[in-house]
Amino acid sequence: MEDEYEEFEPHGHGKRRDRSLSPSSPLHAGESDAESQDAAASDRPSKSQKKREMHALQDLGEELVKLSQDRLDKLDLPDALYDAVMDARRFSKHEARRRQMQFIGKLMRDLDTEPIAEQLAEIKGESDAAKANFHTLERWRERLLADDAALTEWLAEHPSDDIQQLRNLIRNARKEATEGKPPKSSRALFRQLREQME
């Protein structure tokens, strides 16, 4: 099935050009006209280029559809695009959703999408940073629970942390793990580490 938003670009203007030479028309004038038409045609985007641009806009639309509701609401989107994104989320059938994504791409052809792309990049950066920070905290908690020497390293980097509180949480977390109890102290330890890194 062809992409319903591809547009057919005729190579001519709908009329066959008269190639005969009139007495008042020198040969080079006809050549000049042909060169002008060729130059104009080369300035128009090709069908394949238009298709690539449409797919890029649909990919941008996919990112919008995948955002959480809270983050989507924070974006400065035109009402029509926002509504189209919300509709796409409600479609469960593949064909209906595919057509909706094409519609979203068509809407964005008439928009300046650079600000939207910049906002999405900022969100992605924040998300990546949050994930990296989470993994760092996880590693620190694992080290603190496994090795007493890790506490000295942590305090060297975070001297304002409460050493007594840390020791109590570490001791209780180890005891909970040994006895198979819910990791209440382990979660509390994670929260304390996070507060120090914020």
CATH topology of the domain at 128-197: Diphtheria Toxin Repressor, domain 2
Q: Which architecture name of the domain at 128-197 does CATH use?
A: Orthogonal Bundle
CATH class of the domain at 128-197: Mainly Alpha
Proportion in helices? over 70%
What would you report as the Rg, rounded to the nearest angstrom?
Answer: 31 Å
Helical segment count: 9
Which key phrases capture this entry?
disordered N terminus; Diphtheria Toxin Repressor, domain 2; mainly alpha; 198 residues; elongated
Describe it for me?
It is a single chain. By secondary structure, the chain is mainly alpha-helical. Among the domains are: 47-111, PSPTO4464-like domains (Diphtheria Toxin Repressor, domain 2, Orthogonal Bundle), CATH 1.10.60; 128-197, Orthogonal Bundle (Diphtheria Toxin Repressor, domain 2), CATH 1.10.60.30. Helix content is 73%, strand content 0%. The chain has helices at residues 27-43, 47-66, 69-74, 79-90, 94-109, 114-146, 149-157, 163-179, 184-197. The longest helix has 33 residues, at 114-146. The radius of gyration is 31 Å and the shape is elongated.
Helix/strand layout:
Layout: H1 27-43, H2 47-66, H3 69-74, H4 79-90, H5 94-109, H6 114-146, H7 149-157, H8 163-179, H9 184-197
Summarize the structure.
The chain is mainly α.
